[in-house]
């Protein structure tokens, strides 16, 4: 299990945390149904959800937890924006890795963790009337492996998945009862597309309907689950969809992302792979989570229409913002200070502003900034989440520009306009 612990250490080292700024909170659910491995369930329901909301199952890394994945990724804040529900499972065994290796886990309703996670999905289906055609799963590291497993075990439940730094379905299978497969982790398990596809089809032999779409991500410098696993995942899921190995599209949506699409050139391609040049064994960050939602189709569609986000009270929205730029010929850095001038402590903050045309954020510190251009939101990270009355939080970012170096015209903290300071 030493290797498993290393996974968590590297993932945590690359962590950029984001917390939702709404009044919605993460809630633990017990008694949600069959749960043979005693998983825990946490649920995030935003203040505004669509009439038939989508559901996203977000699965953590080794030594992590559902609450850690909630606070360490952007999925909850994106749920606030797009109105879907997020389920966060937690593994409770030693090492907190999910079972992606046992025979029970690798077949439909065979037992182990997938059964407990499916009980969580059914719990949400029974109580929130979600759209059954918009159930999705994503995860990082061990959670990415579970994403592959759930799409294989339950192809009639999940519409699509996004796996960040994982391995193919069945790659981690072991015969000795251990949960770590070094050959797979090192990218040394190589199969033909048909062999990989047969492993998926064998998980639910009776299934003859459509298969979930799959998006896979991997960093080229990943030393825990090595980069060759990306191509093995592509081989597996293209075969499952009856596709060849030649991409329909190859492009670079960002300078260090090489994206290939199979079976289609559009956003709804059956299989999409993104190789992150220079990337390591990291959580989804810097626009990756939103790119996954775009692949799912969750960044468009109807605006949430149910319970509206409440207006902050007790002076919680009162704020002052200072903004300084240091520009050069094609780029600039921005230094921002946001001060809580109200009378109530903010437990989570989100600063919204619009960048002039041509300005694009390339990196940020002390905040998560997304999307990179246009109307952007800078959200707190874990260590500056609390903003007491009179307290300030400083963050910054680097950006490129095409000539316009004007500052944003206005700022809003948690939806309330701020004064310029």
From TrEMBL:
CC annotations in GO: extracellular region
Pfam families reported for this sequence: CBM_2 (PF00553), Esterase_PHB (PF10503)
Superkingdom field: Bacteria
Signal peptide positions on this chain: 1-23
Alphabetized UniProt keyword annotations: Hydrolase, Signal
One GO term (biological process): carbohydrate metabolic process
The protein, known as: CBM2 domain-containing protein
Annotated source species: Planobispora longispora
